[in-house]
Every structure is written in structure tokens, then in C-alpha cells.
């Protein structure tokens, strides 16, 4: 044993002495500024410095000759010994290269090459050039320790990743996938093998991160859930400056083009170099970086296929490491920083204490494409962009040995073992399950998930509404749940409750059978979509000021089912007894109905054709929302069936569209139409979501603004049996006051038009919207902890006589979950 230890020690010592790491920086001698991507040649090798001028070399000789060069500067050669650990190289500008004419010439030459490369994208970009192709991919993703810390500050809902980071844990995963591309279906991924070290159950969401962009040809390059302006998009010259650094002397020579953002403050951009093939101007290689509070580095290489004369993405490595301070950079849809920068406020952060992040964490992922087959007709029929093979989580070790494009290093194996131990020791899996449950509006306590929206509410009819509710979880059964709630209104002094069950008939298609009995109140004139509703909201702004409800005792049953990934449906049958809370009656055929029975069948759908989905063996998960999305509903009321008094049909269609831009501005368009025909009482007509209490004085009407509500329209002012509404919102780029205070200025325009047939059937006077209702608003959102201020003004045919009556002053409240 002693001889073995001695042998290992001597071998390790020999390796250490045989190889020495040399670090340094390349600077402009005149200005002292770093030279990004300076060329460094040594021992027959060639590398480029990083964007801060830094470099790192492994020297294996006692004396090594180094050559430093940069366009527009005098090259410099010198010899270093292995004893040297750090050098600072200062290059002198060439005076003859610094004339204005030459600089313009160099700039124009680089711009000319980029302009031609953009024009040739249809011939060089695989997804534009090829009809179809398929390939396999091996991906390795790990989180480990380094000298300085990372802490996640994000708008993203990726609780799996943030939990690992903020719990000081290591993470290691491997994934093997088969990718299929066709012009008709786009790029589809089938996950053949998946392994998450330390987790008992598969963690799919953490692998949904768009860490590695397929190529840099795209208009927007998505890295770690954040879009950056692509250097080869049509507006490249608006966002980037270009400069030729060098040409390569390889079998297929390439231009080395340096690109740097022009307006980083408004448009997220990368800084790096493109290696463009001299003949085809296709990308051979890309290096890109971001420096600030952290370092983001991307290295992507392409493989040349001579038969197709095409360069195809081959390998990529992306790393986030601790930086040298300074600006935060955009990652994970938000910001990632080092040290103790606080995360953006969210419901999750308010309810849970995330803990301190390990001050030494970094992230790295490597990805390699292999078995590449171009113009192959092999397709994969799936409506989801990512589909997990049922065997993916049960692959034997032999599968991984055969599928890895490189053997696991000793450090990889150490990280994997450490991840297994830390995730178990710190109960990371339990934390992830907790946060995922909370994000859906529930807090688990043993076998019961409490509904966070049932504890406390307030409105003008019930006063304070206190109670509790929720559903059973998998500790009771994974085949069904029991659900319900019990609440009490302090003003009306009545209990309301609901009891029900959901039976999971087929989890993969979300086919459930639901049965419920409910005694509660509903706002008069409201139209609630069964599908597409917000899952969870602690604060419901309009609910506070509602004072016109009706009581109902309802038995409901029905089914939910998902047709493909993007089309979810629900069919519901209900029998309701309706009771009035105000003096109202419905006049029909000489009879007055103040209390009545309704029998209804409702079909509701949510269609998201532009969203992307992950299909696992037991569920479908939304990856990216995608717009526009469509929510629709048809309700048929039957008379004479189960005692129903009225016969009618109601239709509703809600179209939501959102345009997000790289400069962080956003435009939102919401269009909704409602139509009812037949014998419809006031309780089941439509209002336009009014959100202004009818009180004298602007401050007495002060309330919280809603998303789709008319802020100057008084409650119970208008009712319709046919109406259309349009909401337009434009949010400007956030105003940076402090790294934690970035308010958003939003301009809003709202419009509604409607009418009502047979107003004489209703015992109270009804005002319609046939002349068109209009309001304009301005909001300053997210000033502090999600709160802001807003104002709206009513104009047009329904404007009132005084400024006070037309004006509304509001709180705004937006939480990023």
C-alpha cells in the first residue's frame, strides 16, 4: 500500500511539474483598455483572448515562445519560462493603421462580409437550406463550486434550477436525444435517455432550459432562457459593430469577424467572434461572451459536409462563472448576479425563505451532435416540441457508455457523487416539490394541499371572507383527489362551501372525471371560462368592490381532456338553483322569475398553437407560452331538462397576443367577444369587467387596477347580451433607477361595444354599450415590490359631465411568478 501511494504521489508530482498554467491579459499600451480576442500563438497552437483581454495557457516546456497579435497593433514575441505564472502584454498601435481612411475601410470591409453572410443565410442555415435532417445529441449539465458566488434573480418559473442554486447544492445530469427536423414540423426532440444525479423521480423541467442555441443564424439567439440579438439578423448593423480580426490558414480558410453590441443598454447583445467560411460565408465557429457580475461564455463549432457544401452545428459549451462585479447580465429571463443581489420579488419569495446561495457556484453545459444525417426523410410525429421516451429514465449503464461522446472526467464523477449526496442531505427534491405546488396556488401539509386563495378575501357584499380549502395529494392516492373549501362572510354572515373529487382516468392526456357540489355566490353578469383561467391569484382586484352577486346551489360533473399538446378541453354538465341577493326578477311569458333553476352543458377549450410543450410519460408541460392563444366556450341552457326553466345559448371567445422585444418593451393585445341568444336572465348576461365603485370623489374610488377591466366604468353600469372588447397595452423599456427598482411605464387603450335584446324582460333598467365605450390609461408598474400607480380617463359617447366622474386613480400590482 505504501509503495502504491508513493507511486501515485510521484506520478501526480510529475504531472504538476510537466504542465504549468500561465495566465495574463492583453492590453492597448496607449489607453490601457483590454484587447478582446487578440491572437496568441504558442507551441503550434492558437487561441484568442477573452473580451476582457484575459487568457490562460497550459505550458509543457521549460521555455515557450509566445506571439501576440491584433489587427491595427504591432505584434509582440517573447519567451517565458514555466516559473512564470502571470504576464501583462501591452501591444502598441500601428500609426499607419490608425488613419481615418484605413479605419473606415476596415469597418466597411467587415460590414460588407457580414452583409453578404446575411444574404446567404438561406443557403447556409441548416433549417432554411435543408428539407429535413436528423441527428443524435449528448448533453451534460452540471452545477458545481468555484471561488465566487452566483445567485439567481429571475422572472422565470424554473423553480427546479433556482432551488438547486439557492440551496448550495451541486447538480449533474446527462441527456441523450434524437432530433428530427422537417420544413412542415420544425425541430422536434425525443429524449431517449435522461439521468438526474440524486433525484428519485425524474426532474424534467430543469432540462427545458434553452441553454445551447442550435445555431447563431437565428434572429434571436436564446441562451439560458434569455434572447439576445443575433449577429446575422437583418437588423445586425443596428445592434452591432463589426471588425475583421484575422483570417485562418485552415483547409477551409475563414474570416475572423469581431462583433460588439452598439446599444447594450436597450437591446441585449453578445460580444464575440464569428469564423465565416471564405468561400460560402457560412459559420464555421462562434465564440461569444458577456462580462459583468458574472461571466457567460459560449463556444460553438460546426462540422463541414462536403457533399452538401454545408456547415452543420457540431459542439457547444456554455458556462456561467463568477465575474469581477459591475453590471448584471440578463439570464434565465431575468438577471443573474454574484454576491448578495436580491432576487426580484415574487409570490414564491414572499411565502418561502429561499436560503443563502453558495458563494462558489457555477454552471456549465456541453452539447455534442452525432450521427448527423442530412436531407433524411425520417420524421417524428408528436405535437410537442420535446417528447420523453417512456424508457428514458430507466436506461442501463451500457446505454450511457455507448451514447456519451466523451468519457466522464474524474471531476465529472466527483460532481455526480457530490450531487447525489447533497441533494439527498439538503432535501432538494422535497423543496422542489414544495415550490412547484406553491406556484400553482397550494401549500402542502402532509396529505393535504391548502388552497392559498381561500384563506382571505374581501368584497362589499360579504365583507371579510375567511376560510380554507384545498385538495388531497399523492399521499392519499395518485388516481384521484378529494377537494373542497369552506368560507364565511363576516358581513352577510353565511357559510359557503364546495365538495368534490377528480378521478385521473389517463394522466398522459390529462383525462379526468370531475364531480362537485357547491353553495356559493357569483358576480351577476360574469362570464368565466372553464379553461384558460389564471391558476392562482392572492389578490383579485375587482373582487374587492363587487356588490351585485347571486347565490347558487350547483351540482356539476364533467371531463377534461387534452387533444395533442396545444389543445385542452373541458365538457361540464351543471344543474343550479339560483337565488337573488337584490330585488331583481326575470319577466318571461307573463311570469316573474326571481329564483329559478338552470340546466346547462358547457364546452370550453384552450388552444395554444404557437406555444411549445414538453410531453412526458405522464403529463404535458408548457415550455414557452407563445402567442396568440385562444380561449373559447359554448354554454347551452336547457328548459324542461332536470327542471331547467330557460332555453338559451352563450358564446365566448378570448384572443390574447403579446409581442416581446429585445429592448425589453412589450405590446399586449386582448380581444374578447361574447354573444347570448334565447331566454337569458340578467345573472347570466355579460358585463365588460367594470372596475370603478360608484362613489363621489376620485380618492374614494381608489382601487387596484385589473388586467382586462375598464378602470373608469362603474360597477353594474352596463349589461349586454352581445359585446366586443379590445384592450391595447404598450409597455416601454423598464426605467433603471436602482438595480432593484426598475419601474415600467405602460400606455393603455380600452374599447367596448355591445347591445341588449329584450331589455323589457328585466325588472331593473339596463344600459347597453351600443354607442361604444372608450378609455385611455397610463400606469407606472413595479415601482416597489410589485406595486405601482396608474390613472385612466373615460371619453367618447359615454363620457360623463365632470372630470372627476371620468377620471380613475389606481394602484397597480404585478407579481412575477
UniProtKB/TrEMBL annotation:
Domain of life: Bacteria
Entry-linked InterPro entries: CarboxyPept-like_regulatory (IPR008969), DUF5686 (IPR043741)
Gene3D superfamilies according to UniProt: Carboxypeptidase-like, regulatory domain (2.60.40.1120)
Pfam families to which the protein is assigned, alphabetical: CarbopepD_reg_2, DUF5686
SUPFAM superfamilies, per database record: Carboxypeptidase regulatory domain-like (SSF49464)
UniProt-recorded name of the protein: Carboxypeptidase-like regulatory domain-containing protein
Naturally occurring in which organism (per UniProt): Salegentibacter maritimus
Lineage: Bacteria, Pseudomonadati, Bacteroidota, Flavobacteriia, Flavobacteriales
Amino acid at each position: 500500500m505504501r509503495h502504491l501511494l508513493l507511486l501515485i504521489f510521484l506520478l501526480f508530482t510529475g504531472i504538476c511539474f510537466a504542465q504549468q498554467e500561465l495566465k495574463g491579459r492583453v492590453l492597448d499600451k496607449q489607453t490601457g483598455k483590454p484587447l478582446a480576442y487578440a491572437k496568441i500563438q504558442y507551441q503550434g497552437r492558437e487561441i484568442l483572448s477573452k473580451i476582457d483581454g484575459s487568457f490562460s495557457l497550459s505550458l509543457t516546456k521549460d521555455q515557450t515562445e509566445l506571439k501576440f497579435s491584433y489587427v491595427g497593433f504591432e505584434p509582440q514575441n517573447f519567451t517565458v519560462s514555466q516559473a512564470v505564472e502571470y504576464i501583462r502584454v501591452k501591444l502598441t498601435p500601428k500609426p499607419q493603421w490608425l488613419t481615418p481612411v484605413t479605419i473606415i475601410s476596415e469597418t466597411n470591409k467587415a460590414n460588407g462580409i457580414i452583409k453578404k453572410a446575411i444574404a446567404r443565410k438561406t443557403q447556409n442555415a441548416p433549417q432554411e437550406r435543408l428539407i429535413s435532417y436528423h441527428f443524435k445529441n449528448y448533453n451534460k449539465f452540471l452545477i458545481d463550486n468555484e471561488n465566487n458566488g452566483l445567485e439567481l434573480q429571475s422572472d422565470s418559473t424554473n423553480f427546479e434550477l433556482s432551488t438547486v442554486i439557492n440551496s448550495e447544492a451541486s447538480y449533474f445530469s446527462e441527456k441523450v436525444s434524437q432530433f428530427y427536423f422537417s420544413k412542415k414540423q420544425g425541430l422536434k426532440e425525443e429524449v431517449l435517455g435522461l439521468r438526474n444525479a440524486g433525484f428519485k423521480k425524474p426532474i424534467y423541467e430543469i432540462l427545458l432550459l434553452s441553454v445551447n442555441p442550435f445555431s447563431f443564424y437565428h434572429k434571436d439567439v436564446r441562451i439560458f432562457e434569455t434572447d439576445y440579438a443575433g449577429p446575422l439578423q437583418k437588423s445586425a448593423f443596428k445592434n452591432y459593430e463589426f471588425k475583421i480580426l484575422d483570417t485562418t490558414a485552415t483547409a477551409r480558410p475563414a474570416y475572423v469577424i469581431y462583433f460588439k453590441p452598439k446599444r447594450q443598454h436597450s437591446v441585449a447583445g453578445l460580444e464575440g467572434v464569428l469564423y465565416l467560411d471564405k468561400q460560402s460565408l457560412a459559420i464555421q465557429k462562434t465564440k461569444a461572451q458577456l462580462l459583468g457580475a458574472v461571466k457567460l461564455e459560449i463556444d460553438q463549432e460546426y462540422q463541414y459536409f462536403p457533399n452538401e457544401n454545408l456547415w452543420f452545428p457540431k459542439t457547444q459549451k456554455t458556462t456561467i462563472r463568477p465575474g469581477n462585479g459591475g453590471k448584471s447580465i440578463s439570464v434565465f429571463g431575468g438577471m443573474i448576479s454574484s454576491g448578495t443581489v436580491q432576487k426580484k420579488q415574487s409570490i414564491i419569495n414572499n411565502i418561502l425563505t429561499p436560503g443563502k446561495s453558495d458563494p462558489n457556484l457555477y454552471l456549465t453545459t456541453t452539447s455534442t451532435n452525432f450521427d448527423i444525417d442530412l436531407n433524411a426523410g425520417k420524421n417524428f410525429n408528436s405535437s410537442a416540441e420535446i417528447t420523453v421516451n417512456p424508457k428514458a429514465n430507466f436506461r442501463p449503464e451500457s446505454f450511457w457508455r455507448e451514447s456519451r461522446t466523451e468519457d466522464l472526467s474524474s471531476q465529472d464523477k466527483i460532481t455526480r457523487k457530490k450531487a447525489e449526496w447533497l441533494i439527498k442531505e439538503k432535501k432538494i427534491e422535497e423543496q422542489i416539490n414544495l415550490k412547484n405546488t406553491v406556484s400553482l396556488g397550494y401549500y402542502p401539509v402532509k396529505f393535504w394541499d391548502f388552497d392559498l386563495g381561500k384563506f382571505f378575501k374581501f368584497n362589499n357584499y360579504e365583507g371579510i371572507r375567511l376560510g380554507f380549502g384545498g385538495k388531497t395529494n399523492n399521499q392519499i392516492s395518485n388516481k384521484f383527489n378529494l377537494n373542497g373549501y369552506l368560507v364565511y362572510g363576516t358581513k352577510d354572515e353565511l357559510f359557503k362551501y364546495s365538495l368534490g373529487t377528480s378521478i385521473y382516468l389517463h394522466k398522459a392526456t390529462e383525462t379526468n372525471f370531475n364531480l362537485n357540489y357547491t353553495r356559493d355566490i357569483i358576480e351577476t353578469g360574469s362570464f368565466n371560462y372553464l379553461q384558460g383561467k389564471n391558476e392562482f391569484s392572492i389578490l383579485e382586484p375587482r373582487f374587492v368592490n363587487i356588490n351585485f352577486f347571486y347565490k347558487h346551489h350547483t351540482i356539476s360533473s364533467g371531463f377534461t381532456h387534452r387533444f395533442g399538446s396545444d389543445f385542452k378541453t373541458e365538457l361540464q354538465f351543471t344543474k343550479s338553483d339560483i337565488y337573488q341577493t337584490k330585488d331583481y326578477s326575470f319577466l318571461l311569458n307573463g311570469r316573474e322569475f326571481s329564483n329559478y333553476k338552470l340546466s346547462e352543458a358547457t364546452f370550453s377549450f384552450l388552444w395554444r398553437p404557437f406555444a411549445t410543450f414538453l410531453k412526458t410519460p405522464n403529463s404535458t408541460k408548457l415550455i414557452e407560452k407563445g402567442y396568440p392563444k385562444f380561449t373559447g366556450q359554448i354554454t347551452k341552457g336547457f328548459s324542461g331538462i332536470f327542471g331547467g326553466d330557460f332555453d338559451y345559448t352563450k358564446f365566448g371567445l378570448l384572443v390574447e397576443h403579446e409581442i416581446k422585444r429585445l429592448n425589453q418593451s412589450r405590446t399586449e393585445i386582448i380581444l374578447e367577444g361574447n354573444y347570448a341568444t334565447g331566454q337569458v336572465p340578467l345573472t347570466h348576461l355579460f358585463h365588460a369587467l367594470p372596475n370603478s365603485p360608484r362613489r363621489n370623489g376620485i380618492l374614494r374610488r381608489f382601487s387596484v387596477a385589473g388586467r382586462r377591466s375598464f378602470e373608469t366604468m362603474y360597477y353594474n353600469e352596463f349589461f349586454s347580451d352581445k359585446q366586443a372588447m379590445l384592450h391595447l397595452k404598450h409597455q416601454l423599456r423598464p426605467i433603471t433607477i436602482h438595480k432593484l427598482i426598475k419601474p415600467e411605464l405602460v400606455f393603455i387603450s380600452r374599447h367596448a361595444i355591445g347591445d341588449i335584446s329584450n331589455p323589457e324582460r328585466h325588472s331593473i333598467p339596463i344600459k347597453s354599450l351600443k354607442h361604444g365605450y372608450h378609455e385611455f390609461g397610463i400606469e407606472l408598474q413595479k415601482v416597489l415590490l410589485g406595486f405601482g400607480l396608474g390613472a385612466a380617463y373615460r371619453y367618447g359617447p359615454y363620457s360623463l359631465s365632470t372630470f372627476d366622474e371620468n377620471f380613475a386613480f389606481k394602484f397597480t400590482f404585478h407579481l412575477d411568478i
